[in-house]
Design goal:
The chain is of the alpha/beta class and about 210 residues long. Helix 1 crosses helix 3.
Length: about 210
């Protein structure tokens, strides 16, 4: 885990964002996904809103997910590895990048088919001013047997640059852009402007450069 955290810190310092596969062991990810589904089945999730205080409203044209806020102080046994690794990441970011992070918050989010969250700037829950904007945001996919056709990309806007982040598929591949994969596993494939195809590859990084 230390090497993963080091890579994240370096990527944030150099690129402004980081993508890390297998940040948590698969067993921990599966347990979190199962817990989220159980809480949702019990009716504990609620429709996410936009705005703050009395101005908070539900806008399905802006945001269509259901969420459940998590409390580190009463975290379940399933959530403990998640909170522990986030705390280790926070400490490393403070040490290496001097960010001064002293708190964080987290929630489960479920997106029904066709749901989305339009471009926005993250703020702390209940925050309303510039000082309430989050310094670091982290999204962890809990999808199982995900396929490219399912959609679900996280789009990060960084000035004029756009980063699309996709969950790994059932073979452990992460594909960005116009990519075709066949008999390929545990690969990262990035295409900016042309179609990139990978056939019969394992544990490789492929990036279109021209």
């Amino acid at each position: 885990m230390t090497s993963a955290i080091d890579r994240i810190c370096a990527a944030i310092a150099n690129e402004g964002c980081a993508i890390e596969a297998d940040f948590l062991p698969q067993a921990a990810v599966t347990a979190l996904a199962d817990e989220a589904r159980a809480h949702d089945a019990a009716g504990e999730f609620h429709a996410a809103g936009v705005g703050r205080g009395s101005a908070r409203v539900q806008r399905s044209d802006i945001r269509g997910d259901r969420i459940l806020w998590l409390d580190q102080g009463s975290a379940s046994a399933v959530q403990q590895p998640f909170w522990q690794v986030l705390d280790a990441l926070r400490a490393a970011l403070n040490e290496k990048l001097l960010l001064g992070l002293f708190s964080f918050e987290a929630h489960y989010a479920l997106y029904p088919p066709g749901a989305f969250y339009r471009r926005h700037r993250d703020q702390f829950r209940g925050g309303a001013g510039p000082s309430d904007i989050r310094v670091i945001s982290c999204a962890m996919y809990l999808n199982e047997n995900w396929a490219l056709a399912n959609g679900g990309a996280l789009r990060i806007y960084d000035g004029e640059r756009v980063h699309d982040v996709l969950p790994a598929d059932a073979q452990g591949n992460v594909a960005r852009g116009d990519v075709l994969l066949e008999d390929t596993s545990d690969c990262y494939v990035h295409a900016d402007s042309r179609l990139v195809a990978a056939l019969g590859l394992h544990d490789m990084v492929i990036v279109e450069t021209a």
